[in-house]
Amino acid sequence: MDCASNPSAPSAPWDRVLQRLREEIGEEKFTSWFARMDLDALTSDVVRLSVPTRFLKSWIQENYLPRIADIWAEESGARRRVDLAVRNAFARPVALKASAPREVVSERTERPVETKPAPRASEARGEVRETGGDVASGSPLDPRLTFESFVVGKSNSLAFAAARKVAETPAGAAPVYNPLYLHAAVGLGKTHLLQAVARAGAAHGRRTTYLTAERFMYGFVSALKSHSAIAFKDTLRTIDTLVIDDLQFLKGNNLQQEFCHTLNALLDGGRQVVLAADCLPGELEHLDERVRSRLAGGLVVDLAPLEEDLRLQILKSRYQTLAEQHQGFAVPAPVLEFLARSVGQSGRDLDGALNKLLAFNQLTGEPVTLDMAENAVKDLIRPTDPKRVRVDDILRVVAKHYNVSRADLLSQRRTATVVKPRQIAMYLAKTLTLRSLPEIGRRFGGRDHTTVLHAVRKIDGLVATDRALADEIEVLKRLALES
Prior knowledge:
Layout: H1 11-25, H2 27-33, E1 38-42, E2 46-51, H3 54-63, H4 65-76, E3 81-86, H5 119-124, H6 157-167, E4 180-183, H7 190-203, E5 208-212, H8 213-225, H9 229-237, E6 241-245, H10 253-268, E7 272-277, H11 289-296, E8 299-302, H12 308-325, H13 333-342, H14 347-364, H15 370-376, H16 391-402, H17 406-410, H18 416-432, H19 437-443, H20 449-465, H21 467-482
Parallel strand pairs: 2-3, 4-7, 4-8, 5-6, 6-7
Antiparallel strand pairs: 1-2
Helix pairs in contact: 1-2, 1-4, 6-7, 8-9, 12-13, 12-14, 16-18, 16-21, 18-20, 19-20, 20-21
């Protein structure tokens, strides 16, 4: 039976599949990889999905298609084959996003697996064309992300100063702080600084390219397919400043090898490299040890969580911009102070709070007051800030407690003396940090997120029935928090 005969049937299980994916991998990665994936058709034995680019199709097939099939079977009660295709660039979308109730309509049951759009249409959408040289144009830059619009405070002043120094180095001068490596949690300003570096570098006469890890991977794969890999390599290695964002997403042995060669060629050639990730270089365990060592050999700077004064400065800056765009939108100073004190951990949280106030104000006509703000952003109020626990702290505490080595916990050994501590360490990483399951898996020797999920569920179940183990884990939690 095709889904056209019963259009409402697949909506609920598909929404639940997407929600579970979001919970397992985290909001940022879900938005990067799955926000543009649609359910196109459903038959008695096949779930037909589509994505807009071949790169997304290849990455999801390699990393998540079996998991999607498993979740579908669990949520729908029936196991079906999951097919993933690339949407025709000129076809009308046939499914709404998972965030809204939708009617799934099957306008076509078969499509070419790969459809190559005309170059002009591809350029109009801002997508990467299929030549290795195009990667030199870089990923799109947001015109709002400049040094002038970056709000500086104690938590990010060193990163800001280092990024600006790098960007303003004149063309032909020797690079400084090479490589410059920025790391922070989501929403603390890494991308803002990297794009500011790219924009300012070009203004100072430097040939600068800004790339997300996804764009780098897609450019390399496209170059291999089009037999232009040499041009791809030569293009990257002749620029003055290479800026790469979200380095934690760089996966695949061939891609890592090419990145290693490119990094070495640029550094040895006296060219500037600027990178950002969500963790320290040593924690990028999917990268070769030599690459991690080279990254750590430059200037490594952390962007710490935003302090309250800085959050207030950011709110004032963003509010001023919104007030200029929306006449009559007024937020009293006490409300901004309340948001700075109570909302979120990042600049994106603050943006979300202001946007909620704007929506309430415009849709209801209610003026922004403290009472209105407390009601409007109640779902964004953060709990008392927990101490930031690192996975390295957890590994050290667990290894010492169970008299095993850190290497044992990250190894493939399956002996009982290692498996149980490893599962407990994964459980603690999930409960004490904000890292997603795939990120935890990477930190534990490159394991799959399903392995981490199994460990978390197993320990969670044992804690409910084994009082001694529950007490033991509480001790480990305290030790990790105190470390």
